[in-house]
Amino acid sequence: MTQITDNDARAIEELRARLGSRLTIVGHHYQREEAIRHCDIRGDSLELARRVPGIDADHIVFCGVYFMAESAALLAREGQQVLLPDHGADCVMAQMTPAALLDRVLGRLTASGRKLIPLAYVNTSLAVKAVVGRYGGAVCTSANAEKMLNWAFRQGDGVFFLPDKNLARNTARKLGITGRDTHILDVRRAGDAADLDAADKAALVLWPGLCAIHARFNTGLIEAARQADPSCKVIVHPECSPEVVRASDGAGSTSYIIDYVRNAPDGSHIYVGTEINLVERLAREQAGRLRVEPLRASACSNMAKITPENLRRTLESIVDGTAVPVTVPQEDAAPAKAALERMLEACA
User: Fold this and answer.
1) Is position 339 within any domain?
2) This prediction's pTM
3) Average of per-residue pLDDT across 2-8
């Protein structure tokens, strides 16, 4: 396997050199080292969304999951191809919000005339972003959730946050919004189980989704870390439960976590609660200066679907003209782009 990976790595670099400025490879921080080492641009969801419109290459290869590549295809200029090495690299959280169900639920929530603004976490399909755009809503990331939640409240008389109830609750807490002002919607029975009266009384209505990767972290792990080293620091991603976030020393996006570790004093001992590839990369980067450990080894199997082998094959398909780009349905393009651009404008 190592020999195959080494051969793939050499082939990838040769193909990159051959394609030159016609190619840009971008990758999310959760990618495995064997893939992200070939990326020209690395970032979290917000950084990558910001960077895509400025890319001049004819071909953008996205090392990440499908919703990220969809967003890139939406923001790319006309004529650019956005390619995903494995179209099966999806997101469990994104799958928790079917677009048709969201549209029906939003219709029921706003039938009374209430101006409920949908705010979709970037971990959603393009079809969901289109529904959100049609209702005057926007997209957010973990890096700008607080700013975008404030933005959404200014647009209407309530906010419908989807799909991550944990990110929503952790962000709401920063804004002083308590449990009494929130309602987690029951979307079973095709949305008919929703308590419309309770939702109508809540300032913040939440879709009942979450991230399976970050749901694995619990307060017992934090207690064990502090018992092992009372001087340690614990930082986690805000997709973790509110209980885990409250028990930690800090919570924020992948960019926040990277900056926290890089700016920590020499000799620090930091436990990190997020996807294992980023934690291990930080541990290697900081070896000898400080100690970085995973709160628990939690890996995203979908991010792991991008491999040196399928990355090589994708670059070969560009060279031989058989590449199959990620496409955007015409009927969803304008409203989904509006939702994304509202975020980029609000966070400019």
Assistant:
1) no
2) 0.92
3) 70
